[in-house]
């Protein structure tokens, strides 16, 4: 099978990959490169194998569910054991024994095919084109912030970090009645943020925001985000950090700040928001590369300010 | 006026202190020494002056409210401006211009008298003896954890740190239907915790608790507390830390942990809980010293495992 292969911090295109096996085998049509994929290259999670976890595909075979064959699907990335205390408590995305597609002990989607449990699959409505459906996973992650906070009219919400994830998170928050801004690093970034429909601000006064979402992925961004939270306000942490990034405990106590870590979200509402256009993504595709060009695609996705780069099988 | 004086990390007893002036002048009957007072000695908050913020007293004079004269009172410690955006938003305890009794630009209660705005005073029900009323401030702080979490039956709650604050926090949590334990540092601590009515455990498996409250005041305690939180669980930070103590941001994201800083609480429910006996404190007084012995009293309060030490005017 053809696909990308990551090992010891190097990504290569190979044509000798092992065929996947599992409850359902899915032919990948489109796959998206995300920040985590780039971090894997730098050693995050110690992963080696086929990377990639954002995809839209078509079920090629499934012994238990032949009715799914030929259907267009997206897939949840956490593969839970279904049998531990955490799974029984209804938190399968935190299953200790979980594998994670393209991140942890599960071959990913930067290949012709991948295998997934049937329970992880979600049918894609016919009205949603591949270029939109491929955003199901990051859209779910972005909308997940609304599971943690419900900012009200008059509340000030700030998003720090305007990469791929930050843009989606800002758009998710813009569906609320709150006053939502993204923090622009400098004047030069303003036209681009405006073209993405994101209200921007060049500075965030310390303690000025009711809710701040850190999507920066950097220690500097986290520090800015923390400082912008008002006393008794909320700091949402979205996305992992490259290198160490920490929060001072005593200042959280004195300011009574609430910090909420937020990772993967629910696919069903994400697909609904994509289908209805409530969450716009079609303007976020910056480039498409064939799978055989995965090296160039990764290089492109790693450029500062790059939007979504897709791989086509 | 007689009282304690703190300057450059030294506590002295003086008889030449300036008489307090303010909306209400309160004669202090009993005052309690808390961990923060001990930290002030080590430079916390850069305070110099009369320390102390836990007290019960009697109103000696008040120009605006002569009806209060002779009444027994306790007092909230945050003196807010009442006029800034934070005060108008209903968060006076976070007023940026606030002074804090015995901690920040406001003479404290380890003296014969202190002054407070009338708005800070709460009348003490006749049924509540001085030895109980003097716990109003720490009781309010402890009960404040229940403003942040409402642990349910079957949920596992752990309190790390069994000093004065930890004991009160554990007792506050024991009013809920949850399964509440305190973490005992070693076997030798068990009889004492049992005598205080606190169910104890000698170990907390990583990820085993729904809610963990860190009352340790140390980086080691915080690390233990953080590790004990289950994925998507809650870590309450109660009490400030001596020295630096921090939380890793990426692990909060991956485990989707919620962290809530918690400081001062509401006096009215605290007085109700003290009056009803729902929050027991009368077994927590370890010693009483006259004001003139404030040095020895501080030394006593600083001994490992010391419970409440009171100063009598």
The first-to-last residue Cα distance of chain A is: 11 Å
Largest sheet data of chain A: 7 strands, mixed
Secondary-structure-derived class of chain A: alpha/beta
Would you count the extended β strands of chain A for me? 18
Mean pLDDT of chain A: 95
Work out the radius of gyration of chain A. Answer: 19 Å
Give helix % range of chain A: 10-25%
Q: What oligomeric assembly is this protein in?
A: homodimer
Structural account:
- The structure is a homodimer of 313-residue chains.
- With 313 residues, chain A is α/β, with parallel strands linked by helices.
- Chain A contains 11 helices and 18 strands.
- The first copy, chain A, has helices at 35-41, 85-88, 130-133, 136-143, 145-148, 164-173, 190-195, 219-228, 249-254, 267-276, 294-301, and strands spanning 3-7, 10-14, 24-33, 54-61, 72-75, 78-79, 99-100, 113-116, 121-123, 156-160, 179-183, 200-201, 209-214, 229-238, 246-248, 258-262, 285-290, 308-312.
- In chain A, strands 3, 4, 5, 8, 9, 17 and 18 form a 7-stranded mixed sheet that branches.
- In chain A, helix 4 (136-143) packs across helix 6 and helix 4 crosses helix 10.
- The longest helix of chain A has 10 residues, at 164-173.
- The first copy, chain A, is globular, with a radius of gyration of 19 Å.
- Chain A starts with a strand and ends with a strand.
- The model of chain A has no long low-confidence stretch (mean pLDDT 95).
- At the A-B interface, strand 14, strand 15, helix 9 and strand 16 of A face strand 14, strand 15, helix 9 and strand 16 of B.
